Amino acid sequence: MSDIIFIKPKSFEDSKRIVNYIVEDKILHINLTSSDKKMYQRVLDFISGAVYLKDAKLLNPAENIYLSIPKETSFSWGEEGGENKNKMNLVDLRYDEEEEIKPVF
Q1: pLDDT in the model for residue 54
Q2: Residue 53 to residues 34, 35, 38, 41, 81, Cα–Cα distance (Å)
Q3: Would you report the helix, strand and coil content of the chain in percent, each value rounded to 5?
Q4: At residue 82, does pLDDT exceed 90?
Q5: What are φ and ψ of residue 39, in 5° steps?
Q6: What residues form DSSP beta bridges with 101?
Q7: In angstroms, rounded to a whole number, what is the distance separating the alpha carbons of residues 90 and 66?
Q8: C-alpha dihedral, 57 to 60 to 30 to 99, nearest 10°
Q9: Residues 26, 54: contact at Cβ < 8 Å?
Q10: Cβ neighbours of residue 89 under 8 Å, at least 6 residues apart?
Q11: Nearest-angstrom CA–CA distance, 104 and 37
């Protein structure tokens, strides 16, 4: 049975610990609700690379809440046998070549 780890990063340095859990194929609940927007985006960008390399799934069930699910772990969302009324977004980790990246000075 896999471990489930709940983590609420307080700084960008916590993202290294998150990546270690992803590499160890742990299920993560990442709470970014109290993070400022800049740190939130940095943490998400950093851990997205590890999720992509491990071929895991990064889910967004609520605003500023993310779940990292290892590749070989099965999961279900919603009530069994019923219509899934709560839609969970799967975060697309592919690079969008058409997206313009503007540096912030």
Answers
A1: 92
A2: 27, 25, 24, 19, 33
A3: 25, 20, 55
A4: no
A5: -65, -40
A6: none
A7: 10
A8: 80
A9: no
A10: 59, 60, 61
A11: 14
pLDDT (tens digit, 9 = 90+) per residue, 17-57?
999 999 999 999 999 988 788 888 889 999 999 999 999 99
Say if CB 65 and CB 78 are below 8 A apart.
no
Confidence of residue 93 (pLDDT cuts 50, 70, 90): low
Residue 93 burial (10 A CB sphere; 0-12, 13-18, 19+) = middle
**Token digits of residue 19:** 């990546």
Structure token digits, residue 97: 């070549």
The whole-number pLDDT of residue 85 equals: 43
- Among 41, 43, 35, smallest CA distance to 12 is for 43
Beta bridge partners of 65: 31, 62
